[in-house]
Each structure stands twice: as structure tokens, then as C-alpha cells.
Write a sequence for this structure.
């Protein structure tokens, strides 16, 4: 392991002095920020979407209407009072857009669940904006109640805004309500996805590193003092660190801009327990692809002459895109489950599914992680066999048949 760490340090130092890596290190976040601003300049549709107002109708039995107006002054809401009954909401919402009805009743306050009926089209993150009204309602509770133990229990109970569709008014229909996607999962999931892509894209440089050492005929010199396994592991560790460096620089530049542009409490929703699992999945994905890249990279005499087989291997990280549509449409469906169990797509599909699902399927998660870990161990072993022979082969790219012989040896 000591030799592997020496190789990792050598790879890190070599790349940190490489102008191409340094330019990409800083240009990547700058390009991301630049595209965000270009989208706001040339994309009028997004500006119009952000400028759309939300019509909020409040059935107020608690006499907190004026306090709600004050609390929601920072949002683009048109707030109105209404005496409409819950059973009549369906007709009002049938042809409405960006409209919501809140029923602030004594019964809702007692139960701790405030019904919110919305139209099919709503302003993004509306339910997250609703959370600012909790303090107003809590203040009303404290004003109306004394400080007896029973009343304090009521005050300390949670207030929840629960989404209802216009057609779902009975208890049986309410059981099928689609859960509201939480920023506590979306933001950490997107963060981990960014880490995953950054370290995987940086890990692709292992292709070039291994083939370049063969081309410059320095692999034999390196292997005279360390084993092929130490060299392979060192490269995987080194490029992992380089990917993390790229990620940290990009996050420092991009995350404050995203928080400002989208006006979201990113920091509040980012550092949650779910983030640890998301990052663990991202690291497992890198280890899988890195083991494949370092093994196949050793079979190429020159990256510019990579054959169809080597080129296909480089496309493996993008296999997840095949499942994006089915997963978004039905994150608990058959295709989402299949994508979670395929090693090459498991990391990306899991990150996407867990960002969307309100309730996590822990059995499926454990099975997916087990498959991923076993696959990493298997591909590490196979990559070691390929690397041991391929790194010393000069003059041509290895064929799939030759690689298969090395694996069986």
C-alpha cells in the first residue's frame, strides 16, 4: 500500500503541474456559471416562469390572514380570502394554473395537517415556500392558548402542509396522494451527482495516463521498483484525489451562484444525513469505472488509435442516461429497479431515484449496493490481470480476444 500511495502522490504532483489540468480545473466551473447566465440572457421562457405569480386563496377560520400576508411578502403570491368549501375546490381548480387553496381551520390546526389543494401547474418549489407560514400559525397557537402542559404539547406538535389534488377529497383517495419532493433529497442528490460526474470524468484521464506511459516507454522503469498492482491502485487513488480537487474548486465557484440565482436555502438542505449515503454511492461508482478505465487503458498503445472496443468502454458512464426518462416517470417502477441492479448504471440511477422518492426502498438499496461492491471487487481483480500484461505490451492495441486470454490466465 505504501508504494500505491507513492504512485498516487506522483500522479497528483504531475497533474497539478500540467497546464491542461490546471486550465480545466478553473475553466470548468467558469463555463458552468457562464452557461447559467447565458440561459438567463437568451432564455426568456425561464424568466417568464420565474415571474409568474401564484394565486393563493385562504379559507381563514383562525384570523391570521394579515399575518400570512406579511410573512409571504417576499414571494410572488397574490393572496385572497375565500369562504369556499373543500368539496367545491375541484370545480374552481379545473381550469386554473398556479393556484392553491389553503384551509386554515380549527380542525386542521388541531390535527396538525393543513390541507392544500393545488392546480396541476404550480410555481416550482411552492411547497417549500409554504414552510415560512409555520411560524405564523405557531404564533397564533401560542396567542390563543395558555401555558398548561396540555397546551404546550399542542404548540410543540408539528404543523404540516399536505398536498391534495382537486379530485382527492375522501380518505381513500387521499391515500394515493403523490408525495411532495423534498429539497432535503433533491439538493444532496444533485450535489452527489455532481461529485460523481466530476471524479468519473477526471478518472477518464487514467486511459491517457496508462497509454502515455507505454508510448514513452517509462512503464518498464516504473515496474522495476513496484508491482503492476501497486501502480494500478496508485493511479486509481491519485485520480480520485484529482477528481475531488476538481469538485471542490467547482463547488466553491458554482454553489454560491446557484444559491443566489435559484433563491433556494441550499446550505440548509445540503448538510443532511442523506448526503452521506449519496456521496458513498458516488464514490462506489467512481471505483467501478476507474478499475475498468485503468485496465483497458493499459491495453492501448496510443489513445489516439483506440479501437471500437476501447471507445465503447469510455462510454460506459453515460449508460445511465438510458434510464433517466423511465426513472423520472416512475422511480419505483420495473425499469428503475433494473437500472439500480446493473453495475454500470447503478450509481447514477440510485442517485436519481433517491432524490425523487419520498420513501426509500431500503431492501432495493442494500441489494444495489451489494451488487455494486461485489462488482468493484471483481473488476478490480480482472483489471489487475489485464493491467499486468497490457502495460508491457507495445506496438498495437489489444483485441477483445487477447484481453479474454489474459483474464483466463
Amino acid at each position: 500500500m505504501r508504494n500505491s500511495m507513492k504512485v498516487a502522490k506522483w500522479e497528483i504532483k504531475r497533474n497539478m503541474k500540467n497546464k491542461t489540468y490546471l486550465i480545466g480545473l478553473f475553466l470548468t466551473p467558469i463555463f458552468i456559471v457562464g452557461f447559467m447566465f447565458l440561459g438567463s440572457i437568451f432564455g426568456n421562457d425561464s424568466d417568464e416562469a420565474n415571474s409568474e405569480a401564484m394565486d393563493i386563496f385562504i379559507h381563514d377560520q383562525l384570523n391570521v390572514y394579515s399575518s400570512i400576508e406579511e410573512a409571504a411578502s417576499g414571494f410572488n403570491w397574490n393572496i385572497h380570502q375565500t369562504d369556499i368549501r373543500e368539496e367545491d375546490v375541484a370545480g374552481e381548480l379545473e381550469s386554473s394554473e398556479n393556484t392553491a387553496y389553503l384551509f386554515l381551520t380549527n380542525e386542521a390546526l388541531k390535527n396538525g395537517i393543513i390541507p392544500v389543494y393545488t392546480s396541476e401547474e404550480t410555481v416550482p418549489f411552492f411547497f417549500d415556500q409554504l414552510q415560512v407560514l409555520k411560524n405564523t400559525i405557531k404564533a397564533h397557537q401560542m396567542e390563543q392558548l395558555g401555558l398548561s402542559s396540555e397546551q404546550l404539547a399542542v404548540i410543540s406538535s408539528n404543523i404540516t402542509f399536505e398536498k391534495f389534488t382537486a379530485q382527492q377529497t375522501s380518505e381513500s383517495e387521499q391515500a394515493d396522494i403523490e408525495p411532495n419532493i423534498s429539497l432535503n433529497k433533491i439538493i444532496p442528490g444533485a450535489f452527489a451527482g455532481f461529485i460523481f460526474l466530476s471524479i468519473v470524468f477526471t478518472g477518464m484521464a487514467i486511459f491517457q495516463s496508462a497509454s502515455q506511459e507505454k508510448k514513452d516507454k517509462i512503464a518498464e522503469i516504473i515496474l522495476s521498483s513496484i508491482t503492476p498492482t501497486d501502480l494500478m491502485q496508485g493511479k486509481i487513488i491519485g485520480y480520485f484525489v484529482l477528481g475531488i480537487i476538481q469538485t471542490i474548486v467547482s463547488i466553491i465557484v458554482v454553489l454560491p451562484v446557484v444559491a443566489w440565482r435559484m433563491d433556494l436555502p441550499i446550505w440548509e438542505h445540503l448538510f443532511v444525513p442523506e448526503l452521506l449515503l449519496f456521496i458513498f454511492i458516488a464514490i462506489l461508482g467512481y471505483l467501478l469505472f476507474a478499475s475498468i478505465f485503468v485496465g483497458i487503458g493499459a491495453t492501448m498503445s496510443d489513445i489516439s488509435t483506440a479501437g471500437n472496443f476501447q471507445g465503447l468502454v469510455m462510454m460506459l458512464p453515460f449508460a445511465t442516461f438510458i434510464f433517466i426518462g423511465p426513472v423520472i416517470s416512475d422511480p419505483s417502477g420495473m425499469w428503475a429497479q433494473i437500472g439500480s441492479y446493473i453495475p454500470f448504471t447503478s450509481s447514477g440511477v440510485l442517485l436519481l431515484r433517491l432524490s425523487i422518492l419520498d420513501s426509500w426502498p431500503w431492501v432495493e438499496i442494500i441489494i444495489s449496493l451489494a451488487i455494486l461492491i461485489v462488482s468493484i471487487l471483481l473488476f478490480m481483480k480482472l483489471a489487475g490481470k489485464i493491467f499486468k500484461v497490457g502495460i508491457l505490451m507495445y506496438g498495437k492495441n489489444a483485441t477483445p480476444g487477447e484481453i479474454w486470454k489474459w483474464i483466463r490466465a
Notes: The chain has a mean pLDDT of 76. The first strand starts at residue 54 and ends at 60. DSSP finds 22 helices and five strands in the chain.
